[in-house]
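Why should sequence recovery work at all? Because a backbone constrains its sequence more than one might expect. Tight turns favour small or flexible residues, buried strands favour hydrophobic ones, and helices have their own preferences. The token representation captures these environments compactly. In the example below, the structure is given first.
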């Protein structure tokens, strides 16, 4: 409940007239995929490999100049990684454990508009508020909530392409995300997540309507 309250307060500040932050946004929805992984101290005889998650949320853009948009993208996403263990020969790694991290997310991006108005070059910061963390080893699900930080902060860099369809427009977005802080509490090498950061390649698509 606490992460939801934080995001609701942030959105309330954006749209409160007395705050005078910004007005006349483009508002839309998005969905997509997150090819995420973890990096850092993997358990002994194990490596992290990518895991596919999903993204969904709102896309709210404010034009602060002819070339620059400020974009708020509150939503929900799943991340994590597969933990690959060495096989009996000790020569190959096999995906054995699925680590799932669920977040309420608030990316705040700066979009630089190209001359043809079809491309945005973007970068920014994303704050993720953990709602669930678990690992499935094929037999049981292990709760990792006590080992993962409640907050994750990542830097995002990407490119967006627009297709007008009348007044609304479709957008397609590809971005790289790199964790800026360690997201695990544990320093125990027997843990699935001793000390790690997140990373990922995210694809989003959606529709927006200028107001």
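From this structural description, the recovered sequence reads:
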């Amino acid at each position: 409940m606490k992460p939801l309250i934080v995001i609701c307060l942030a959105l309330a500040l954006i749209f409160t007239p007395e705050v005078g932050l910004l007005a006349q946004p483009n508002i839309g929805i998005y969905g997509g995929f997150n090819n995420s992984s973890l990096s850092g101290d993997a358990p002994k005889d194990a490596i992290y490999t990518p895991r596919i998650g999903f993204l969904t949320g709102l896309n709210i853009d404010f034009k602060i100049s002819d070339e620059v948009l400020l974009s708020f993208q509150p939503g929900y996403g799943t991340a994590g990684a597969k933990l690959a263990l060495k096989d009996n020969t000790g020569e190959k790694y096999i995906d054995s454990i699925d680590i799932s991290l669920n977040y309420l997310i608030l990316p705040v991006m700066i979009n630089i508009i190209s001359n043809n108005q079809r491309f945005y070059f973007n970068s920014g910061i994303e704050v993720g508020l953990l709602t669930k963390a678990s690992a499935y080893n094929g037999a049981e699900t292990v709760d990792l909530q006590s080992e993962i930080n409640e907050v994750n902060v990542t830097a995002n860099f990407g490119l967006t392409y627009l297709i007008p369809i009348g007044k609304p427009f479709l957008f397609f977005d590809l971005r790289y995300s790199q964790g800026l802080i360690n997201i695990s509490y544990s320093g125990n090498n027997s843990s699935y997540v001793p000390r790690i950061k997140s990373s990922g390649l995210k694809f989003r698509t959606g529709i927006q309507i200028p107001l």
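A few observations help interpret the result. The two ends are 31 Å apart (CA to CA).
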